Amino acid sequence: MSAKGSFLILKRYRAGDEDVILKVYGTCGIAKVLVPNGFRVERGLLGYTEPFNFVSIVYKQAGNVIILQDLLEVEFLSYLSLEDYKRYVWMNSLALFVERWFLQYDPELFNILLFYISMNPENHDLFLLRFKLEFLKHMGLYKEDIFEERLRGFVKRLIEERSLKKLERLRLSRELITKLDQAIESHLSSSL
Q1: CA 100 – CA 189 distance, rounded (Å)
Q2: CA dihedral over 160, 161, 163, 167, signed as positive or negative
């Protein structure tokens, strides 16, 4: 029996001589998609299965692996990572966070991810923190007390600020970014 779903490709691996395995996030949560003969030029799928592309597919499921049957639609986001190395690192940072912490599919989180992955902020570290805080808030895991008291006002401002231009102007030291990131990762490790 076939099903239809939409996924953001996080990673692509070669499997054997001709097959490709995709690690994706979408309607099935985090999943692996087997693309039979996906590495063959005649099949013509390599450009469509680049990391960061948003795809709609028809698939069948065998155990915990999804087998691609047909590719319906592709929104090419992978080209954004080719603009420069900094942009690639930004997109990869988001993909790594999703791969680690997004345990199940949530349409709102999926839309937040698509919004962030398609933007190119100047201040990548700050916007990555904002993305992580939005994740915490959406999952109901956000608590002020996971941060040092002196940082709570800044974190609240970071969450509540709606103007992306104002956020771009904020500058943080590497030490402060590291402390905030460690607090988030520690909280996630103990909560999920």
Answers
A1: 10
A2: negative
**Averaged over 142-170, what is the pLDDT?**
89
pLDDT at 36: 93
Is residue 20 within 8 A of residue 13, CB to CB? The reply is: yes
Average pLDDT value over all residues in the chain: 93
In the three-class reduction of DSSP (H, G, I as helix; E, B as strand; rest coil), residue 112 is classed as: helix
Residue position matching structure tokens 């999804």: 66
Reply yes or no on whether the pLDDT at 141 is more than 90.
Answer: yes
Query: Residue 172 pLDDT > 90, yes or no?
Result: no
Give yes or no for a contact between 100 and 59, defined as CB atoms under 8 angstroms apart: no
**Stretch 5-20: mean pLDDT, rounded?**
94
Cα 152 to Cα 143: distance, rounded to the nearest angstrom: 10
Widest pairwise Cα distance in the chain: 59
- Give the integer Cα–Cα distance in Å for 39 and 60: 20
HSE-CB of 161 using CA atoms within 13 angstroms = 19
**Domains of the chain: residue spans and CATH:** 3-78 (2.40.50.140), 80-191 (no CATH)
